[in-house]
TrEMBL record:
Keywords: Glycoprotein. It comes from the Eukaryota. Residues 26-142 form the MHC class I-like antigen recognition-like domain. It comes from Asarcornis scutulata. The keyword Electron transport does not apply. InterPro entries: MHC_I-like_Ag-recog, MHC_I-like_Ag-recog_sf, MHC_I/II-like_Ag-recog. It holds the Pfam family MHC_I_3. This is CD1D protein. Gene3D superfamilies: MHC class I-like antigen recognition-like.
Length: 143
């Protein structure tokens, strides 16, 4: 994937991802796909993308945790102050998720290095209803 960023991340094409359930016509699917590499109990590498229907919305820079926005309209859709708050909240949430991942590694007695994959999102339906989902896996198995 290249999104104006200076690096390449290898994620499946959004078109090849299966929705968690069949979507009614005109529904929108927002997905967050993240991979957490835990080489040891003291370090973590994170890669991730956000996908809206079949468009990559942002790519997570694994070195800085900055979000590389793929489309100018994403910036235009929110006030600059809101984007700063969102990124700050995102980074705090990432720290909490990483702490949780290390706790899970201990709980499932995994040997380092450990790789967790997270697939979360929300289905937005035309009638105004929505359904959130979260899946986490380690070593090719669901947790």
């Amino acid at each position: 994937l290249w999104c104006g960023a200076q690096y390449i991340l290898h994620f499946p094409s959004p078109r090849s991802l299966e929705a968690p359930s069949p979507l009614p016509a005109e529904s929108k699917l927002f997905q967050l796909l993240q991979t957490f590499l835990l080489p040891s109990a003291n370090s973590t590498k994170v890669a991730g993308v956000a996908v809206l229907t079949d468009m990559f919305v942002y790519v997570l820079d694994p070195d800085t945790w900055n979000l590389r926005i793929c489309y100018p309209w994403v910036h235009q859709a929110m006030a600059e102050g809101d984007l700063v708050k969102l990124v700050s909240s995102f980074k705090l949430a990432m720290r909490n998720v990483i702490r949780f991942m290390h706790e899970m590694a201990v709980q499932v007695q995994a040997e380092y290095p450990v790789v967790f994959q997270l697939h979360t999102g929300c289905e937005l339906h035309p009638n105004g209803t929505s359904r959130a989902f979260a899946k986490i896996g380690e070593g090719g198995r669901d947790l």
